[in-house]
């Protein structure tokens, strides 16, 4: 499906069953695949999962670790009031969260410069000597080689970032779009493998709406329709589809971060349901 660099630099993926960490136990979680939907096997407990399983994790850092294709981290030593620019080892096409933590009694803030560098600013707190450097640790997640990443993965990245920033409306709009792109990508691949590319295009062209595609086309590809699971389908319809449609027409109820989290869980649950039934 894609040749994205899922081997990544130092990103720690956790097994959702036993919490074994890829970074702490190299080689335990295999394979580090080139396909975000391909299964990962945990040698520690025998559990098999995909990155979509990790995206259901309630902790945002676990989601970023599963979603990003690249991560860099480092440390800069600055005196209070100093500024530093740290050149990243490689370019980020899509930049995710950046975290900076001061290891001492000063305040630190970091920003990203076009996916190329990390800018770090510090300010003094009372009682701290001006000439004593303090370490500032930084960490950034993002996506490289975005042209090789599925479109639905990029839109899911945008949705999760909006949700993490507390922007519920754009998050839900992106969750809805990510699911539609996901369904089209999965169906195109599955129908092409089962029939051929021409037949896959014909089936998808006859069913443009995602509510139609998760019925007959999905059944042709997997033998199942998403509507079979009323809990999964109703949650996606209520928490994602209907809210997005209302927003698209200038309406909808007031939204808060909890609504974005519900949309996240509903979207990931529907994606996982489909992946579990792929041939």
Summarize this, please?
The protein is of the alpha+beta class. It has nine helices and nine strands.
Shape: globular
* Uncertain stretches of 5 or more adjacent residues: 1-11
Beta-strand content bin: 15-25%
> Helicity range of the residues?
40-55%
Main sheet, how many strands, which sense, barrel?
3 strands, antiparallel
Which class best fits the helix and strand makeup?
Answer: alpha+beta
Average predicted local confidence, pLDDT: 81
Q: How many structurally independent domains?
A: 3
Straight-line N-to-C gap: 14 Å
Order of helices and strands: EEEHHEEEEEEHHHHHHH
Measured on Cα atoms, how large is the radius of gyration? 21 Å
Helix count from the secondary structure assignment: 9
Question: What is the strand tally?
Answer: 9
Q: How would you write the strand order of the largest sheet?
A: 1-2-3
Model description:
This protein is an alpha+beta fold. The chain has 3 domains: 1-69, no CATH class; 71-144, Immunoglobulin-like (Sandwich), CATH 2.60.40; 150-275. It contains 9 helices and 9 strands. It has a 3-stranded antiparallel β-sheet with strand order 1-2-3. Strand 2 (40-42) and strand 3 form a beta hairpin. It is globular.
Topology:
Layout: E1 29-30, E2 40-42, E3 48-49, H1 51-55, H2 60-67, E4 70-78, E5 83-87, E6 94-102, E7 106-113, E8 117-124, E9 134-143, H3 151-164, H4 168-194, H5 197-206, H6 210-213, H7 216-222, H8 230-248, H9 257-275
Antiparallel strand pairs: 1-2, 2-3, 4-9, 5-8, 6-9, 7-8
């Amino acid at each position: 499906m894609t040749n994205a660099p899922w081997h990544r630099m130092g990103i720690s993926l956790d097994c959702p069953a036993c919490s074994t960490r890829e970074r702490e136990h190299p080689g335990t979680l295999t394979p580090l695949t080139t396909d975000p939907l391909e299964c990962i096997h945990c040698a520690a407990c025998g559990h098999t999962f995909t990155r979509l399983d990790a995206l259901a994790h309630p902790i945002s850092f676990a989601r970023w670790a599963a979603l990003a294709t690249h991560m860099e981290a480092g440390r800069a030593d600055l005196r209070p009031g100093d500024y530093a620019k740290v050149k990243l080892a490689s370019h980020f096409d899509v930049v995710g969260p950046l975290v900076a933590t001061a290891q001492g009694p000063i305040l630190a803030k970091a920003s990203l410069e076009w996916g190329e560098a990390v800018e770090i600013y510090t300010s003094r707190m009372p009682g701290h000597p001006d000439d004593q450097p303090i370490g500032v640790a930084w960490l950034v997640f993002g996506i490289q080689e975005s042209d090789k990443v599925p479109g639905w993965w990029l839109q899911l990245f945008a949705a999760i970032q909006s949700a993490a920033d507390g922007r519920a409306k754009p998050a839900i709009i992106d969750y809805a779009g990510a699911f539609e792109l996901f369904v089209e990508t999965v169906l195109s691949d599955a129908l092409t493998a089962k029939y051929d590319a021409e037949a896959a295009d014909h089936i998808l062209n006859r069913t443009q709406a995602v509510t139609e595609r998760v019925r007959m086309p999905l059944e042709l590809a997997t033998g199942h329709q998403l509507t079979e699971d009323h809990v999964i389908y109703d949650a996606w319809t209520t928490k994602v589809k209907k809210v997005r449609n209302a927003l698209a027409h200038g309406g909808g109820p007031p939204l808060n971060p909890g609504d974005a989290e519900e949309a996240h869980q509903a979207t990931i649950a529907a994606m996982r349901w489909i992946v579990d039934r792929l041939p």
